Amino acid sequence: MKIIHNAEKKLLQERIRQCNFTIRKYEESVKELKSSLQSKVSTEINNQILTLFEKTHSSHFEMAKSRQRQKFDRLLISKEEIRSRQTLEIPTLIGQSGERSVLMKGLNFSVTPSKIPVDEIVAATELACNQPKEKSQAESLRNEVVKIVSKSKPPRPNISRAEREAIKALAKDDSIVILLADKGRTTVILNKQDYHNKVKALLDDTNTYEKLTSDPTRAIKNKLIQTLKEWRKEERIPNYLYNQLYPTAENVPKFYGLPKIHKKDVPLRPIVSSIGSVMYDTAKFLAKIMKPLVGLNSHHIVNSEDFVNKIAELEVPPRQKLVSYDVSSLFTSIPINEAIPVVRAKLGSDQSLPDRCPLDIAQLSVLLEMCLSSTYFTFQGEFYKQKKGAAMGSPISPVV
């Protein structure tokens, strides 16, 4: 935040400097014009022109000043509205000023650590050193990291003591759930029981979800390990990729909901976090390989700006209408059995694939099927399976 503030301040100072420079140039031009005018007309006419000039200048100045003042006032109002929207509070749930203050910062606000996270730095360094490179490079990296960490000091705190205590208190409060809104980056505080009831209502949809009697994590992990070992034995996968895809974590994907505060009764958008799960690294790898294939057709829209540019010169014929459609439950609506052959065909037509990936199309298809079929998750200690569509929360699903 401090870096952003300093950058904004420097940009504003540069803008002011440029404006002052422009003003001085205009003042010099006015001075030259006055001198030229004085030499060409009588004193009486010159005074009349200058009087008219001063009145016109004063009128335009006041109009411009009024416009800028209105803009400034709107900015202040907008800022207060943004701050008030940043936290949607259910009455009586939040009372302490410290709690309100820290929640107003938003869930993306990063609190400076009270100590250097040495363990995390060491783990990240070792992970980097395990990538394919010369041993001397890995050792040099370790030495450099040790040198930097030994001289490092914790950064200055960016929250007050009251706010730090508020974070601890909120973490211990078992009666509420703090979430990010589905849209708008707003922080939402819900009563935990109300939140659980909303989630249960989603999971009770037997057409989409099925409750499992046991945790399938170990079975999925064993299947992936067996596949990778067979490929390594057949020398169909390089060691670095084998190590990259080999599952070490066993985190179960977790289900949660994002409140749609712009809709009546604040329904939830279902989300599954698969970070650290058995298939997560494999899904990330596949997403990286397949992402260049996205958008290679005339029906693809990159974003809202791309859409606006494409329809800017579109003329709708008489008696016709331009309409928009919203896909309900997009991921669960993807037909997996039809999607995989389409992906295979796209990969087959990609001439750059051998340069980007050491695996063949058959191997990629096996991994893709495993990722897309790994649609289980947990909520409140119970296990569920998504019965249709692509796995929510998997990095590969948006690409597919």
Automatic annotation (TrEMBL):
Residues 239-400 form the Reverse transcriptase domain. PROSITE patterns: RT_POL (PS50878). This is Reverse transcriptase domain-containing protein. It comes from Pocillopora meandrina.
